[in-house]
Design a protein that fits this description.
Chain A: InterPro entries: Metalloprotease_M4, Peptidase_M4, Peptidase_M4/M1_CTD_sf, Peptidase_M4_C_domain, Peptidase_M4_domain, Protealysin_N_PP. The complex is a heterodimer of chains A (343) and B (84). Chain A is an alpha/beta fold and 343 residues long. Chain A has twelve helices and nine strands. In chain B, strand 3 and strand 4 form a beta hairpin. The chains are: A alpha/beta (343), B alpha+beta (84). At the A-B interface, strand 4, helix 6, helix 7 and helix 8 of A face strand 1 and strand 3 of B.
Chain lengths: 343, 84
């Protein structure tokens, strides 16, 4: 159940009085994620009691680097605190909430490590800094230079992408180099996009399958930084160059830069996911997303896995979940053929 | 001396390349004199951080953003200021 359209007073009643403990916990969580500080304070007493179903609530912390390059910076907003009025800080806080809710609702995962890890984001990092990253412990966002890039806290899928690097670190821990690195990148794009799709309530055929839509400043010739649907078409601009991503193995790029082209060759598994999700239909996080999630977190993926090994693992997961002859498993197998990873 | 810097990686994955010659750039000549490519630690593989490939007259090294400081950092930003 997702409660966004339920008014807060009803949620509060559900949170206190519903017979189903899971329903009570979920209503509390939705209130914590979406409503004002005052509402949360009113619920402080019941929320402090042991959670009856174990349904998780987020623990967020936003820090402000004050345009320096030191981490984490000074605390700007702790969990449950009122909005600060700083757009980057408040956006980062809300998008961490949406990302947390995605993992909890879709896959029952409690935060980055599955055990309620505090989610820390630093905003206003550096001067006109054109990047966002995961440093192994937290997310970091620059303001962008304002000419090519806008604020990196803006698009939800950027937060989803960075937090998913944390999920990968705590699960398959894919080596950030070569094909396993491109898979690490692709998984961050896949779940980044799915987080946005759930937030917007979109099905696979309604989604834009773009990564970083809204991040390019006005005047830059491009729609986003990557397209999972059509890798290589996201931008073509005199300042940025052309989107270098290949759409299938025939365009695989061998390079020593970018840890072996992890942001380039990720286009191949990105498109495989898109093909599987669209062939299966419906909400992409429910089936295709579950296959990828369980493959990532299942414990049997080698940290140096290549595209062929990952493809085989997703087919195995789909077979286990839906059966060997199911439409879902066929869609996953066909997707990897569609990008030239399998025959 | 000819100095080339390539920045790759980052969330956007957009490559930047800069090139300069210390013969016509006194500031670069001073920076090159203060840089020791042999003492640079290996780049950590940190998701979405920038990676810098630096070439000073054929001597090469790769530096991760987190290790980029001191005169090498000044040199990188100076040369990328001339980015194509």
């Amino acid at each position: 159940m997702r409660c966004h359209i339920v008014p807060p007073h009803m949620l509060e009643r559900i949170a206190r009085n519903a017979d189903d403990p899971a329903l009570r916990a979920r209503a509390r969580r939705t209130l914590a994620l979406t409503s004002a500080h005052a509402t949360e304070r009113r619920l402080a007493a019941p929320a402090a009691a042991p959670a009856p179903s174990g349904a998780a609530v987020p623990n967020r912390m936003i820090a402000d680097a004050g345009h320096k390059e030191r981490l984490p910076g000074t605390t700007a907003r702790a969990e449950g605190a009122a909005a600060t009025g700083d757009t980057s800080c408040d956006q980062a806080y809300d998008w961490l909430g949406a990302t947390f809710e995605f993992y909890e609702t879709a896959y029952g995962r409690n935060s980055i490590d599955g055990a309620g890890l505090k989610m820390i984001s630093t905003v206003h990092y550096g001067e006109r800094y054109d990047n966002a990253f995961w440093n192994g412990e937290q997310m970091v966002y620059g303001d962008g230079d304002g000419t090519i890039f806008t604020d990196f806290t803006g698009p939800l899928d950027v937060t989803g992408h960075e937090l998913t690097h944390g999920v990968t670190q705590y699960t398959a821990n894919l080596d950030y180099s070569g094909q396993s690195g491109a898979l690490n990148e692709s998984l961050s794009d896949v779940f980044g996009s799915l987080i946005k799709q759930m937030h917007l309530g979109q099905t696979a055929d309604q989604a834009d399958w773009l990564i970083g839509q809204g991040l390019l400043a006005p005047g830059v010739n491009g729609v986003a930084l990557r397209s999972m649907k059509e890798p290589g078409t996201a931008y073509d601009d005199p300042q940025l160059g052309k989107d270098p991503q290949p759409a299938d193995m025939s365009g695989y790029v061998r390079t020593y830069e970018d840890n072996g082209g992890v942001h380039i060759n990720s286009g191949i598994p990105n498109r495989a996911f898109y093909l599987a999700a669209v062939a299966i239909g419906g909400h992409a996080w429910e089936k295709a997303g579950r296959v990828w999630y369980e493959t990532l977190t299942g414990g049997s993926l080698a940290s140096a896995v290549d595209f062929v090994g990952f493809a085989a693992a997703t087919v195995q997961t789909a077979t286990r979940l839906y059966g060997a002859d199911s439409a879902e498993t066929t869609a996953v197998a066909d997707a990897w053929k569609g990008v030239g990873v399998s025959q | 001396m000819k100095v080339t810097v390539v920045r790759s990686g980052g969330f956007a994955g957009i490559r930047r390349r800069g090139e300069a010659d210390s013969a016509s750039d006194p500031m670069l000549a001073r920076l090159v004199g203060r840089v020791d490519l042999g003492s640079v630690p290996p780049p950590g593989r940190i998701p979405d951080q920038f990676v810098y490939d630096i070439d000073i007259d054929g001597r090469r090294t790769t530096v991760g953003e987190a290790q980029l400081n001191g005169p090498l950092r000044e040199l990188v930003h100076h040369v990328l200021g001339h980015a194509e």
